[in-house]
Amino acid sequence: MVESGAAVERELSDVSAAVGARQVELTREIRQRITASMPELRGDDTLEKLLGSSVAENVMTVLHALEHGTVIDNVDAPAAAHEYVRRLAQREISIVALARTYRIGHAQFLATCVEEVATRSYDGAVTAAVISRIVAVSFDYIDRVVEQVITTYQRERDQWLLARAAGHAARVRALLTDSAADVDVAESALGYRLRRKHLGVVAWLFGESGGVHGLTRLEQVAAQAARALEARGRPLFVPRDEALAWIWLPLASDAEISREMLEVAFDDGVGAVRVAVGEPAVGLDGFRQTHDQAQRTYGLALAASPGARVTTFAEVGALALICADRDAARRWVTATLNDLAIDDEPNARLRETLLTYLTTGSYTVTAKRMMLHKNTAQYRVGKAEEALGAPIDERRADVELALRACRYLGRLVLREPAPSARAKRDHSRSAP
């Protein structure tokens, strides 16, 4: 057994040395395979030279570990690998592409090592043991190194984002406020075309701290949304703080965006990202208009309780305008809804039923959506009309808008129950 183990170590060292003698050729093959499979890494001499250096140092390091039995836990990613990923981060090449370069390189490295083993005449046990060691050591190396270079990538990406953000933010603020802004100069500086159709978005992290990694998450969601909505180019992403960003998506001139499409496009998988979305608009004026709408929607979304993951100006635009002055909005809601604006459970049921009825125009559909009997839906609408103190048809639009304000803003616009009613309600809740 000892002799067999020693034989494996000898053969492993010999195989590593033989592959090392072909290091230049192997490095070239790996680099060519990577660039052939990944067009985004081609055409830039600096980037391709850095890729070659990174591949060469990685190959040399893992071969040295195999030949001399170095413990992988003591091995760090080569300097060239760290420099390469910093450049990828600066060129806005995705972290997915970074991970793929290592998968491609590892596959070619293993194939070369196995070919070398096949040229030697071992017994079956030694052959299996040598290949097993090569696979295990190289996988451990790739796992450790990828983790290290991803950390470098994230750090560089975050620093790059923050540095770029300062310049972009100043330029964008000028575009939003300066009627005489030079569009050509702004387009060149931002890398974003302004004479097109835009969708303005305000995105923020909900329920967790931000930090530079938070900005990276928001930017990833922006890129994901651009792909899902078939944007005509990269989004314009402008961080505002560590957990908030302004986004513009460049759309096709005939693009039509539904709420369902937005829900899918901005789904980060864990519900940490929330967005307020304006209406698509064209040109520099549209760039400003859709952003202003997203900003107003954002203000309403922050006030909403509990709030939605996606809030659109199309749904709440009138509310956003009305609720710019919260005190005035509360007074208007109370005047419009009368007793229906009281903040208690019975009136909450009546409000939701009435809003559903006004939206659908049908007792049958209302009952189906709310899982009620049709007669119950009709009874609730009648009770709601009594609480209003006036026929619904006399001010249908105002009533519907006020009901939507109650749905989105809750207690911010509702009226407290009378003290006696509140005490009675609290007593009934505490009763066994």
Descriptive overview:
This protein is α+β, with helices and mostly antiparallel strands and 432 residues long. The chain has 3 domains: 158 residues, Globins (Globin-like), CATH 1.10.490; 130 residues, Alpha-Beta Plaits; 106 residues, Arc Repressor Mutant, subunit A, CATH 1.10.10. Helices cover 67% and strands 8% of the residues. It has 17 helices and 6 strands. Strands 1, 2, 3, 4, 5 and 6 form a 6-stranded mixed sheet that branches. A hairpin with a 2-residue loop joins strand 2 and strand 3. Helix 5 packs antiparallel against helix 6 and helix 6 packs antiparallel against helix 7. The longest helix has 54 residues. The protein is elongated. The C terminus is likely disordered.
